[in-house]
Amino acid sequence: MSQSATRAIRAKCLDCSENFKSVAYCPAFECALWPWRFGCGPKSAAHRHGAHVTDPKRMPGGDVDLDELPTSPRDYEPGDPT
Questions:
Q1: Are the beta carbons of 26 and 13 closer than 8 angstroms?
Q2: N or C: more exposed end of the chain, with fewer CB within 10 A?
């Protein structure tokens, strides 16, 4: 995917969500753009932010208070009580 396409996806995700943290912990797993929400491909996102960011089963659900989650998804431990 071209860099401009991934940037456009990132911009759309930021438009749909409130901020970076909302995009990082986006609960819209069924969205076709979800794997690309960091503005890069899923493999790059896993390398930069941790493998759990590309696996919906390891991400917190939509009912979690974002204020209780770490700012960086890299600091999020899947299975943390939140």
A1: yes
A2: N
